[in-house]
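F.,

This is the one I mentioned.
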């Protein structure tokens, strides 16, 4: 079947179908995730941490986001592909935001962008949407604000969260991520909005869920947040496979005759 479109993604809410989203950052993983049937793939700026090894999402550049979006775009046949706008590519005025976000649509096969912000980003969102660039909002915990926030923690200002989510919807976004928001506030927001809410650490009442692929596959070394469920232990699998390989090469067990040519 054909690739999921932005309007069809949004319509899933009214149809009462939960929306599944995962991140992916390269061709190999994006192909597997797409083939497994996820609705949307996010080329998240978390690639700054999980691919590049930085401590937060601030260092990744627009060129690097485009590079990873190209790889994912080439891999995906079914899922909608959304790409994070990196810090500070959408804070330089609407004109520059269109120029920067436009690169995602011009240079990759991806269909939409995501940016962090609510009331404060409404103008930029509406400028992008006006230019034909579909936007997913992102409210609650905004990792690009880490230095202002002084760390990553649950966001509990009900009034502000609701105002942000509604501003994003009014500005024309097709969906909004709610990150690290108490479940009851996320439920209230999800009920009030027409566009789907995609939760991460925001409870079960959201219209969809998103996780960082490396976290849910058990590939992440170091801290994994409480909201992550690990569906696999790929770190353990890799350790086992690499350990066996090294052992067998050292003992002479690999390669066996069947791995060679006459
Ligand atoms: O960058 C990212 O991976 C994200 C998701 C966790 C929502 O923004
Ligand atoms: Na992100």
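My design for it:
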């Amino acid at each position: 079947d054909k690739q999921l479109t932005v309007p069809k993604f949004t319509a899933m809410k009214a149809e009462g179908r939960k929306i599944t989203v995962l991140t992916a950052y390269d061709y190999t993983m994006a192909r597997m995730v797409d083939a497994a049937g996820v609705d949307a793939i996010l080329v998240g700026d978390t690639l700054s941490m999980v691919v590049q090894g930085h401590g937060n999402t601030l260092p990744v550049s627009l060129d690097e986001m485009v590079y990873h979006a190209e790889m994912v775009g080439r891999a995906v046949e079914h899922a909608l592909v959304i790409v994070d706008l990196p810090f500070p590519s959408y804070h330089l005025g609407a004109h520059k935001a269109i120029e920067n976000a436009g690169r995602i649509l011009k240079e990759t096969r991806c269909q939409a962008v995501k940016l962090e912000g609510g009331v404060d980003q409404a103008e930029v969102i509406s400028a992008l949407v006006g230019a034909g660039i579909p936007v997913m909002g992102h409210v609650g915990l905004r990792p690009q604000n880490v230095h202002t926030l002084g760390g990553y923690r649950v966001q509990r200002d009900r009034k502000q969260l609701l105002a942000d989510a509604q501003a994003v919807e009014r500005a024309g976004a097709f969906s909004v991520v709610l990150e690290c928001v108490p479940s009851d506030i996320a439920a209230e927001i999800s009920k009030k909005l027409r566009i789907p809410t995609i939760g991460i650490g925001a409870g079960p009442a959201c219209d969809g869920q998103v996780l960082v692929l490396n976290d849910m596959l058990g590939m992440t070394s170091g801290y994994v947040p409480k909201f992550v469920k690990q569906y696999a232990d790929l770190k353990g699998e890799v350790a086992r496979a690499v350990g066996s390989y090294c052992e067998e090469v050292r003992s002479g067990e690999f390669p066996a005759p069947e791995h060679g040519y006459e």
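The CA atoms of residues 119 and 163 lie 7 Å apart.

Talk soon.
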